[in-house]
C-alpha cells in the first residue's frame, strides 16, 4: 500500500509539472502588445474586412478605447465591427474622426455593414477610416 501511495504522489507531481509547463508559454504569448495588435481581446474595438467578423484571408485591426486612424490596408474596406470595450465607440467615415459616424454601444456589433445605413442613406460597408470614443 505504501508503494501505491508513492506512485500516486509521483503521478500528481508529474501532472502538476506538465500543467505549469503548458501554462507558461500561453501566458507569455498574451503579454505585451499595443493598441493595434491582432488579438481580439475583451477590451478592444475590432474592425474586420469581411462580414460576420471573418478575418480568414482578410484583415482585422483591433483598438483599445481611444482615437485611431485605420491602417491603409483596411481603410475604407471594413465590412463588420465589434465593440468589446466598456464604452460606446464610433466608426468614422473620414480620418481623424471626421465625417459621418456609426455609434457602436459597449458590447454591441454590426456583422454586415452593407445592411446598416449612414445618414446619407448609403451603407457603411467599405466606408470606415477611423475609430474613437463617441
Automatic annotation (TrEMBL):
Pfam families: Inhibitor_I36. Keywords: Signal. Residues 1-30 form the signal peptide. It comes from the Bacteria. This is Peptidase inhibitor family I36 protein.
Amino acid at each position: 500500500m505504501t508503494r501505491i501511495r508513492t506512485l500516486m504522489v509521483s503521478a500528481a507531481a508529474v501532472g502538476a509539472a506538465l500543467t505549469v509547463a503548458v501554462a507558461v508559454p500561453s501566458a507569455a504569448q498574451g503579454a505585451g502588445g499595443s493598441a493595434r495588435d491582432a488579438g481580439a481581446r475583451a477590451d478592444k474595438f475590432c474592425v474586420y474586412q469581411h462580414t460576420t467578423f471573418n478575418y480568414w484571408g482578410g484583415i482585422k485591426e483591433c483598438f483599445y478605447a481611444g482615437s485611431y486612424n485605420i491602417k491603409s490596408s483596411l481603410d475604407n474596406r471594413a465590412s463588420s465591427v465589434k465593440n468589446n470595450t466598456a464604452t460606446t465607440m464610433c466608426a468614422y467615415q473620414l480620418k481623424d474622426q471626421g465625417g459621418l459616424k456609426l455609434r457602436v454601444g459597449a458590447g454591441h456589433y454590426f456583422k454586415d455593414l452593407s445592411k446598416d445605413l449612414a445618414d446619407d442613406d448609403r451603407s457603411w460597408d467599405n466606408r470606415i477610416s477611423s475609430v474613437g470614443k463617441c
